[in-house]
UniProtKB/TrEMBL annotation:
PANTHER family: PROTEIN YIPPEE-LIKE CG15309-RELATED. The gene is Ypel1. GO terms for molecular function: metal ion binding. Keywords: Metal-binding, Zinc. This is Protein yippee-like. InterPro entries: Yippee, Yippee/Mis18/Cereblon, Yippee_fam. The keyword Zinc applies.
Length: 141
């Protein structure tokens, strides 16, 4: 019989590689989905780091999600957005849309589409991700 360099088909292990729509640079601290490790946000996009006035709002309001504490981000990657609906949150009435991980479809938080109170307008177009759904990646020591 002729020798083959390839293993028999039953011995070949197939693995499904994960591909995300966007990868954040490895040189920055990032947040990823705790369920599938898809990149979600760069630490530089955390609102509390972007503007001291907004940082004070952040500290005073201590963002809360349905599963506990949450972070407010300027922008995120690898998330899908559901339809907007009006919800009464701790800070008043807002139009929000749930956001979910594009890779594993887990609901992560929401996007502020519209704030009805003028003091909350800074949240429009921003994203809440609950800490229960995030893990820190790259450069956190």
């Amino acid at each position: 019989p002729e020798l083959s360099e390839e293993p028999p088909a039953e011995m070949v292990k197939m693995t499904k590689s994960k591909t995300f729509q966007a990868y954040l640079p490895n040189c920055h601290r990032t947040y990823s989905c705790i369920h599938c490790r898809a990149h979600l946000a760069n630490h530089d996009e955390l609102i509390s780091k972007a503007n001291f006035k907004i940082f004070l709002f952040f500290l005073m309001q201590s963002f809360q999600g349905s599963q506990g504490r949450a972070y407010l981000f300027n922008s995120v990657v690898n998330v899908g957005c559901g339809p907007a609906e009006e919800r009464v949150l701790l800070t008043g009435l807002h139009a929000v849309a749930d956001i979910y991980c594009e890779n594993c479809k887990t609901t992560l938080g929401w996007k502020y589409e519209h704030a009805f109170e003028s003091s909350q307008k800074y949240k429009e177009g921003k994203f809440i991700i609950e800490l229960a759904h995030m893990i820190k990646d790259n450069g956190w020591e």
